Known about the structure:
Three copies of one chain form a homotrimer.
Chain A: H1 2-23, H2 28-49, H3 56-59, H4 62-76, H5 78-85, H6 89-109, H7 114-135, H8 150-165, H9 170-191
Helix pairs in contact in A: 1-2, 1-4, 1-5, 1-6, 1-7, 2-4, 2-7, 4-5, 6-7, 6-8, 6-9, 7-8, 8-9
Amino acid sequence: MLNAIECSAVVASAIYGILLAARKQFDVVGVLAIAFAVAFGGGTLRDLFLDRPKLFWIEHDHYAVIVFALAVVGSILPRQLLKIEKLLPLPDALGLGLFSIVGASYAIDQGHSMFIASLLGVITGTFGGVIGEVICNEIPSLFRPAPLHATCSFAGAWVYLLINLTDAPGIVAVSAGIVVVVVMRLAALRWNVRFPAMSLGPHDESIK
Amino acid sequence: MLNAIECSAVVASAIYGILLAARKQFDVVGVLAIAFAVAFGGGTLRDLFLDRPKLFWIEHDHYAVIVFALAVVGSILPRQLLKIEKLLPLPDALGLGLFSIVGASYAIDQGHSMFIASLLGVITGTFGGVIGEVICNEIPSLFRPAPLHATCSFAGAWVYLLINLTDAPGIVAVSAGIVVVVVMRLAALRWNVRFPAMSLGPHDESIK
Amino acid sequence: MLNAIECSAVVASAIYGILLAARKQFDVVGVLAIAFAVAFGGGTLRDLFLDRPKLFWIEHDHYAVIVFALAVVGSILPRQLLKIEKLLPLPDALGLGLFSIVGASYAIDQGHSMFIASLLGVITGTFGGVIGEVICNEIPSLFRPAPLHATCSFAGAWVYLLINLTDAPGIVAVSAGIVVVVVMRLAALRWNVRFPAMSLGPHDESIK
């Protein structure tokens, strides 16, 4: 079950990366690079920050093969991806949930504090997209007003971490965390829930 | 004493990050991310490059709590930060000094050469701001003509490294290095000391 | 022989970095940073991803000294670099070949799959330039239609990996891999061989 979620999340992230690269008119090399960055970027940061000996995409190398194949096929048939795009929010929300909880659990298992674990959950769940957009020379959409994304990851990570303090079985904590992320994310998309943009006001002459 | 400097430096960096994010009209998530990037980016690169087992902000997790709280409060009361902004150069220069010397000392303690240690001092002291600006899609101000910044870090690191070769007690080397960084940085700000921009001349047709 | 190739490749990468920074009108600090990023970025990612205990430029610190000296001299005499620029494709292609094969060999020696090894070859060979351009706020040229670059690295890595499966001596596999990269790269430059840009077609309203 978790494997199926993980696999669908990697596929959804890769497709987002391919579409991002296609909109920047990259060639197949750029499509591959951005697909890898979006799909693997968050987990790579987590593994580096936690000093884990093997990056997850090096250890489980079938994910790299899947992303590679998707990017090559997507480069040849880009318009088919556009048709799939509207189906992506559900697997993407599931992936956000799964990766957030997995990231938090790796950190807590290493003995770090719950606060650090929640941050690593968010980094794992969301920073692939940030890295992809930074490489594409775009301001990360995660950081600008848009339907809640990192916030859902943060909330779900805390639900997982708090239930994990109790005697409840691990699967309950993991499931509850993922459900909270998915429900919050889909609700934020449905009702366009977002934070406002910051403003330093009309007296800040340094605004560009 | 060093703890007080470190804490004030983290606060000053975080406030720079919050103001940078506010000027890009990010939401609270973006403000948090840029505050973390500016405050922790340089030390994170140092810890990864030196293969230290625990990132400093994971080991000392109260810094992450402080930056988080600052970013949330700053998102609610951004104009108060503008008033504080003019007070920042001193804690920022102290932080530049402390982080540069700490970065150089970690490298020299691992047995690396003085030249490598001076580079790691500069990376620790200055690359948080670079990472924050790259994420914000801005050209890093560290790399364009502006009052000397990385150069102060480099000079102070060498003062520390050279005194460290002698029989002088460690605290003398550390203090002298920090003082050199702080005095150079404040002088560069006061008298606008800067390097010129490079130019390939009018015959370079590839200038954009 | 390999040492001479490696050294000329580091010099060629550093000069590309210096010219990139000069075209962005950076000062000497920016020139140093971009020269380091282009020359050392790919190998640094490789060493971090493979969890190697010492980054290659920290272990072999004469490379950092060479790049530092080049960047300082280049900042003073930028126009001399322009004259050298047209000589760079050959050492650059040699470096692409060498770094790609070395990256792939490090991964295969750690027991990773051939596919992962080929990806690490490409990352080692090409990501220095990507990092340099991202820091300079440019869209990476590696990802847009241009004479084949990463593709040459990928093909040469596979030639090395496949010969490495046989009983042939290691030097044969390494040499064949490097030759394939160099010949493909020079041919791609000579005849302007490139992949087309992706396009989502006129019906994609989200194109910017």
